[in-house]
Amino acid sequence: MRLAVGVTALALAAAGCGPSNSGSDTPDTGSAKGEPIVVGMDEDSTGPGASYSVIAGKTIRAAIQDLNDKGGVLGRPIKLVVENDESDPTKVPATLQKLGSQGAKVLLLQSGSAAIIQAKGQLAGLGLPAIAPTGVTATLVAPPNNELIYMLANTTNDWAKVYCGAFEKAGIKKIGVLADDTATIAALNKALFDQMSCVQIVANEKGAAAASDLSAQVARLKNANPDAVMVTSVGGAFEVLAQNTLASQLGGKPRFSLASIGNQPASWKLANQGALNGLIFMGSINSQNPRTQELVKFLKKKNGDDYEITAYDAQAWDTVQLLKAAIEKAGSDDPKKINEAIQGITKMPATFGQGSFTLSFSATKHLGADGLCGLSLIEFGSDNKPKGPWGTYQPPC
């Protein structure tokens, strides 16, 4: 009963309590005057990517509202128009066409990686630059069709380097993998594990994203006797069920996960007591970063003192700041000029990662991350909350 209620609550939270993403929190013009600069956002608010897209989408709205309250960009307000592709690649063309028809000059692709990959081929026809705020798959910004798309965060190639550094430091040579069946995770796993020759995958189990029981999969993982288990999922109910089952059947076995669980505070409350204790996830939030500290203050003031900041928040915030800098550099909302302006932004201090972490772009560098120090391995404590950096290994800055 507890799990059923919890899963329902999480689903409602992830879906924004309904299918619409326009919402009453759509940014208004604030003190800005003049013709609005239209920004389009493809936000999965009801599909498998909703568990992280809704978090990022909420902070994107807050960041745009903050800009408008301070006079906008070039003295003009930012108008946000939103559509939902449900992380379904087949719905991407129509979704982007809708955003373009509403006057969008630049796009924010806040959806699953499989959907964003599909979007790449559409951008040239639309003539619109696009930023993927929380994208982590290197394919998103790699040729072909990458002339108009950009990413901020470290990719799965960097994740692979960090995981391998961690496994080697901890003496882990064999891992078992438990994954959900979404297209996003299938693409991510291929990109990630193709780069991880440092370990042997002795078992590779998969469960439905909407699964209610993962006991059989975990039993097979146990029989394979890996040195550690790694869960790869978009998060949400699947991740909670996976960690609950692993804690019960494989207690004491080292566990690793993607960024999803660390960036979904609602999930922590649904896990069994102590089920997340010792779990290590790929994080990007560093409490020593002064820009992170400022964002924490802003979001707590806006969302309440109990609000838990995530990498999705920080990457969403930095996306809006990048957009502001590009429009100002372009001196207009002309899409071609904005695209050229993004390519001229270098050493932009980031709100995620370590204090010295920056973002840089060029005509040939569409991935902003400057080095591995945009990542941190974070460990959960017995209270099912992140307790800080994992002491065994951290990526160099």
TrEMBL record:
Polar residues composition-biased segments: 19-29
Entry keyword Zinc: no
Region described as Disordered: spans on this chain: 16-36
SUPFAM superfamilies reported in the protein's UniProt record: Periplasmic binding protein-like I
PROSITE patterns attached to this UniProt entry: PROKAR_LIPOPROTEIN
GO biological process terms, semicolon-separated: amino acid transport
Keyword Transport: yes
Domain of life of the organism encoding this protein: Bacteria
Residue span(s) of domain Leucine-binding protein: 36-358
Keywords from the UniProt entry: Amino-acid transport, Signal, Transport
Similarity comment text for this entry: Belongs to the leucine-binding protein family.
Name under which the protein is recorded: Amino acid-binding protein
UniProt source species: Virgisporangium aurantiacum
Record lineage: Bacteria, Bacillati, Actinomycetota, Actinomycetes, Micromonosporales
